[in-house]
Amino acid sequence: MEKSQLYRVDDFGVKNYNYGFIALLSFALFALINISLGYLTFMAETNVEGSPVKTYSDAFWLMLMSSTTIGFGDVYPITLIGRLTVFVMFILGVGILGGAGAIFANKIFGFADTNIKNRELRMQNFQIIRQNDRTYTKLLELEEKMASLLRDAHKPTDIDK
User: Fold this and answer.
1) How many CB atoms are located within 10 Å of the residue 57 CB?
2) For the chain, what are the domain ranges?
3) Fold (CATH) for 1-111
4) N or C: where does the chain have the smaller number of CB atoms within 10 Å of the terminal CB?
5) Count of CB atoms within 10 A of residue 95's CB?
6) In sequence order, what are the residues at sequence separation of 6 or more whose Cβ sits closer than 8 angstroms to the Cβ of residue 45?
7) Angle between helices 19-45 and 56-67 (to 10 degrees)
8) Each residue of 115-155: pLDDT tens digit?
């Protein structure tokens, strides 16, 4: 297993990713980004007149809606810092949630699971090579026996002398 616990390499050199660990890491990162950018937005927006962000929960809600691209419009930033945090959350949130969604879809529905296909093909290739090696060994033994029989056939016998 690789030190970061993200994947392990099997006997055929195929990386098998630890999807549970990656999903947990993704959601922890997602939560951390939501909490911290929500706090930045809260600090930038709460003391500004006309801002719909009144509490930290408003700012956190804004980050969640930005990260999921829903954006109801009930809470929105009006300061430059607030808009930048929403922009950053939009980019990072879509990336993290999209990656987690892709992992989920791949694991649950099995779309294009190339690791399994690669593993099966490598196993088949290994079996074919092993069979070829056994066949090659038997052919060498047969060649030696044939050569021995031919030598014995061409040896002068006591009758020939």
Assistant:
1) 12
2) 1-111, 113-155
3) Helix Hairpins (1.10.287)
4) C
5) 13
6) 51, 53, 59, 77, 78, 79, 82
7) 130
8) 667 777 888 898 999 999 999 999 999 999 999 998 888 77
Q: Give 54's contacts (C-beta < 8 A, 6+ positions apart).
A: 46
Which amino acid, 4?
A: S
State how far the Cα of 114 lies from the Cα of 109, in Å rounded to an integer. Answer: 13
Alpha carbon distance 115, 19 (integer Å): 13
Q: What is the pTM of this model?
A: 0.62
40 near 81, Cβ under 8 Å? yes
User: Which residues pair with residue 15 across a beta bridge?
Assistant: 9
> What are 68's two structure tokens?
């999921």
